[in-house]
Structure formats: structure tokens, C-alpha cells
Amino acid sequence: LTSGGMLYPRDSESRETKELSGMWSFRTSGSDQDAGFREQWYSKPLSQTGPVIPMPVPASYNDITQDAAIRDYVGWVWYDREFFAPTRWRTDDLRVVLRFGSAHYYTIVWVNGQRAVSHDGGHLPFEADVGHLLSDGRRGNRVTVAINNTLSPFTLPTGSIEYKNDTNMYPPGYFVQNLNFDFFNYAGIHRTVLLYTTPATYIDDITVVTDVRDAVGVVRYNLTLGGRDLNPSATCKVVIRDKEGTAIAKSAGVQGEVKVADAILWWPFTMHPQPGYMYTFEARCAAGQEGVEDVYRLPFGIRTVNVTKSEFLINGRPFYFMGFGKHEDANIRGKGLDYALIAKDFNLIRWLGANSFRTSHYPYAEEIMDQADRQGVVVIDEVPAVGLHKENFAKQTLQHHLVVIEELIRRDKNRPSVVMWSIANEPSSNLAVSNDYFKAVAERARSLDVSRRPLTIALSSAAAKDVAHQHLDVVMVNRYFGWYSDPGRAQLIGRQLLACIEEWRNVSGKPVMVSEYGADTIAGMHMDPPYVFTEEYQVQLIGEYHKAFDVLRKKGYFVGELIWNFADFMTAQTITRVVGNKKGILTRDRQPKASAHVIRRRYHQLVNSS
Ligand code: GCB
Fold first, then answer.
1. Ligand 1 binding pocket, CB closer than 6 Å
2. ipTM of the complex
């Protein structure tokens, strides 16, 4: 179903990019969902269809205005803007591609009134050749985007629309969007939109798989070429460059194996003084009849990942996950890409001494993943399969889940920071129907990832009833002892956690880690003795978990602890959330709660003692 390699757009001597970030025009469809389609809003400037407002791209639209109807909108919203394509792009020798880093959830794109592409799913890139749609008139071009954020039992993440038919209580036609998950359903054009060019015949995809044998890095690669007039005897030259740009190995052909002597391995920053070492895989292919060369430079790292019965190994050394689940979430911009926030978060990750995070509960922006690669931060890469319960284990959901897995692996397959795929969060994996479902998803993931990264799920059912773990390599467990069960009774945590984790180990025989534990905590709220929602209680609760983790670590199969959550984040309005989920060790604006200092001390100590 997916087509094309969708390599991240990078400038080179044969490629050019042009960002379309900035202010776009925006409007919702109001209460008439069909209006935009019926009246063909894509055939003219959006401002001629009715009132529009300026809307930043990238950003979620929800928190930009003072209008609750926009914040809480469910249905079609519309964006458009104009742009110029340089005259030099108007040639048959070039391919012009329009690419969206992501838009949430279902998106249709028109260029100059012609349908260019549509995409199902909110967290992965999509693109289309648009060269043939571009005008050569002086008035430039128009891109129109319609986005629908409605979630159903068959979308990922899952949700449902509930009609309220009691006319004593609700106006006619009243409905609500129910969400099967605990974060705000931010929507809009969340990541960078850009145009990029390639030669008409081009490098479509690169797969790099690395191994290490006696200090020699072994780099197996495969190049896919695209475009018209493909020359069957196309030549490709490959050069591996070190960080300084020096060529250290060479090869030729669309596939091959290159050896890097004395390879500098990619290491997590907690394991090595020179972490996150990235080489460059430079490919040059003159694949068309006309012999124009396409050049693409892919950053990659040389490292191995292996899972034994009890250990998680990076470059053959045991790795213990210390980190958190995160969210793409911030004030005003929602889930919109923000370089300042990315830099701040990675500085905080380093400050806290965390070596890893999970991309709960969806794939994060490629610009975030780039930093994980370069800074040596380990990532558990999760698909948006959150909220899978009885009614969701349907054929339609599975089909989409398989596509999402494919899109994610295609996007992140070459990233050294990604050491494991998380194929779901807290599914009802106690249900028999989930067995075939996860078997299919796991098989698809294993067949697609040439480097065979391990698979996991953040599980929450009872170990004895779980049917999903048999398809996985590592068991992640989400548990809220002392919070959702026995709130305020932190003294019970040790006993309960030890019993729970031992049971998961006995049932699965696999390495086990805790992927969520935590307590909602309002920054600045204090009480002693500790009481739920205070900073004192969060500190007490995590202290009890840490004691239990230390006992588990001695047992030899316990491979990590990820606290929930890195920072406070927004959720839907409910009576169990005080302006969002407050389980962050940082506030939403990234200031430490007392717990952050405890985590920081612990993570730094654990690194120094290992
Ligand atoms: C969970 C979910 C996470 C929630 C968290 C909570 O188990 O995986 O999305 O935010 O619990 O705080 O309830």
C-alpha cells in the first residue's frame, strides 16, 4: 500500500528544498461538514469561500485562538496558501515533490485545484509528485489542505462518535467525540510542509543495516531507484564518510557490503564518551538515460542490538533503559513541530541523565528522531495503536495497523537510536481475538525490518491472561500501584510491583521492563505527610518504585524503568484531569518538580555505578 521510500528531504548538489512554513489561511467547516466539498473550496482561494483566519504551520490549530469552537472542533478544517515555484524547476529533468511531515488525522491535498494526495493517519509523512500540477503563471500556485480529526474504532489512535439523542438534554444532531486514550486530540498541520526536487530519475530509498565483527563495521546497503527511463545498467557509487567528512570506505552498485575498519560505534551517551557517532552514507546514482546524477547523504550509525532471554544488548553490552514516556505536547503550539522545544527537551534529557524514551503513543517528528540519533539517546519507537479494545480488533483496524507499521519502519529503519518497535500501548491483550491480531502485526514488522529490531508492547493486562507477549521479544509493563489502585498507600508498592513483575517474567520467560509508573502531581502543591497530588507524594511514590526496581535488577532479567511522564501534558476535559495529565516530573513548560531532582540523582547514580 505504501509506495516510494520517502527519504527525508535533504539538499544536495542535485536536490533543492523549499519550506512552506508560516501563516496559512484557515477555516473550519462550521456545522456543515460537506460545504467545502460541495462548494469546491479547493478550486479558489479559501478567503473567497468565507471568513478565514491566519493559522501557523506547523502547529495544532486548537489552542491558537480564543474560540472554544475551534479548540474543540470535530470534523473538516481547511487550510490554504500560495507559493511560487522557481522557473528553473519547470523542466522535465526535475521531479517536484510536495511533502508533509505529518497532519492529523485524515488529509486531502490539492494543488491549484487538482487533487494531489490524501493520507490516513496523523503521525507519519506523506508526499506526492506535483510538478505537473504547478502553474507557470505569474500568480504562483495554491495548495489547499482539508483535514479531518474524527477518530473511529478503526483509526489509530482509536475513538468513537457518540450521538446524544435525548432532546431534553441535547440539541438535535448533537454528538461527542470519545477518545480511547489520555491525551488531547490535537489536530492540524503538525510538521513541516515542503517542496523538494530530485532529478527525474532519482534515489528513491536507501536501507542500511550494520553489524560489527572484531571492531570492523559491516555496512550492508540496498538502494532503490525511481523515476522514468530507468537505465537497467544504472551505476551507483557509494562513499562512507566519517564525521569530519573524510571518505573511509567505498563501494559501487545498488546493493553491497562495505567494511569500515576500526569503526566508531554508535553508543548511547550514558555508555561512551563519544556518543551518537554518525557516519554519512553518500550515494550517487546516474540512473536515467540522460545520465544526470542524483546525490543523497544519509546519516547512519554503526551498532548492533540483540535481545537474549534476560538481557537487552547494545553493541554486545547490557543496556538498562532509564527514561520516560514522552508526548509531543506544549502550550499554544500543541503537537506542532518546534525546534526550541526539541532542543530544550534534549537538554533536559541530558540534565536528567536519562538514556532513553518511548515515543508514547505515536511516532514523533523526524527532527526529534534526528536529535536522538546525534545525541545518543535510545528510542523505543511506538505506533499510534493506543486504545485497542474489543470492538477495535477488527479487520479494518488491523489493515490500517499494518500500513502504519510499514510507514513507520520505512521512515525510521536506518536510525541507530531506534532499538525497538513498540507495536501498541495497553491493548486488551487478555482477549483471545487479540492473539491473531498481534501475531499479524508482529509478523509484518519482522518481515519489514531488515535489521530485525526486537518488538514490544506496553502491556497492562494481567500476565496470566495475556496472549500478546508470545509475539514479542521484550515485555513492557505499565503499572500504577499507589495511584489508580491503593491511592496514597505507597508502602504497598514494593510488594505489589515485585509480585507483578515476577509473574510477567515467569509467564513470558523474556526480559521485562516497566514502561509506565507515576502519580499526578500539581507543581507547587505540598503536604506532609505526603498526600495524593502533592509533590511530596510523587517523590514518595517513585522512591518506593525505585527500591523495588533495585531488587528486580539483581534478578538479572529486568531491563528498564521509564517513568510516566517526562512533562505534564494536555488531555480532553474530564473530572479526573486538572487542566491535563499532571504525571510529569517536569511541568508543561519544562520546569522541574521535586521528583525531577530525585530522578536526576537516581539516573546519574545508576550510570556511575554500572
Ligand atoms: C496509561 C496510559 C497513558 C496515560 C497514563 C495515565 O496507562 O498508557 O497514556 O496517560 O496511563 O496517566 O493514566
1. 181-182, 361, 425-426, 478, 516, 564, 581, 583
2. 0.99
**Distant-in-sequence, close-in-space partners of 177: CB < 8 Å, separation ≥ 6:** 74, 150, 151, 159, 160, 161, 185
| Mean local confidence (pLDDT), 62-89 | 96
Provide the pLDDT confidence category of residue 148 given band limits of 50, 70 and 90.
very high
Calculate how far, in angstroms, residue 524's C-alpha sits from the geometric centre of ligand 1: 22
Cβ–Cβ under 8 Å, residues 187 and 79? no
CA distance 409 to 196: 22
What residue segments make up the domains of the chain, in order of their start? 16-149+185-197, 200-303, 306-609
Residue 331's H or E segment, with its range, is none
Taking residues 263-269, what's their average pLDDT? 97
DSSP string, 93-115: TEEEEEEES--BSEEEEEETTEE
* CB-CB contact of 345 with 590 (8 Å): yes
Distance 201 CA to ligand 1 centre (A): 47
Residue in 182, 326, 477 to alter for ligand 1 test, most ligand atoms within 8 A of Cβ: 182
Instruction: At 99, list the grid cell.
Output: 511533502
Residue pair 142/45 in contact by the 8 Å Cβ criterion = yes
pLDDT in tens, 368-413: 999 999 999 999 999 999 999 999 999 999 999 999 999 999 999 9
Q: How far is the CA of 520 from the centre of ligand 1 (A)?
A: 10
Nearest CA to ligand 1 atom 5: 182
Q: Ligand 1 atom closest to Cα of 458?
A: 8
User: How far apart, in whole angstroms, are the C-alpha atoms of residue 126 and residue 143?
Assistant: 15
Q: In angstroms, what is the span from residue 434 Cα to ligand 1's centroid?
A: 20
* Cβ pair 350, 269 in contact under 8 A: yes
16-149+185-197 placed in CATH 2.60.120.260: yes
Q: Which atom of ligand 1 is nearest to the CA of 460?
A: 7
How many other β-carbons are positioned within 10 Å of the β-carbon of residue 169? 8
- The pLDDT score that the predictor gives to residue 137 is 66
Rounded to the nearest whole angstrom, what is the distance from the C-alpha of residue 182 to the centroid of ligand 1? Answer: 6
Identify the three-state secondary structure at position 586.
strand
Contact between 477 and 504 under an 8 Å Cβ cutoff? The reply is yes
Q: How do residues 92-105 score in pLDDT, each as one tens digit?
A: 889 999 999 999 99
DSSP state, 334? B
Q: Does the pLDDT value for residue 230 go beyond 70?
A: yes
What is 306-609's CATH number, 3.20.20.80, 3.30.565.10, 3.90.1440.10, 3.30.450.40? 3.20.20.80
**Known active-site residue 13:** no
Atom of ligand 1 nearest to the CA of 361: 9
CATH fold for domain 200-303: Immunoglobulin-like (2.60.40)
pLDDT at 287 over 70: yes
Asked whether residue 2 carries a pLDDT value surpassing 70, the answer given is: no
Same fold, 16-149+185-197 and 306-609: no
Q: DSSP characters for 514-572?
A: EEE----B-TT---SS--TBSHHHHHHHHHHHHHHHHHHHTTT-EEEEEEE-SB-B---
Three-state DSSP class for residue 233: strand
- Looking at the predicted structure, is the pLDDT value of residue 229 above 80? no
Protein residue whose Cα sits closest to atom 4 of ligand 1? 182
Q: What is the mean pLDDT of residues 533-555?
A: 98
> Which one of 382, 426, 516, 561 is the catalytic residue?
426
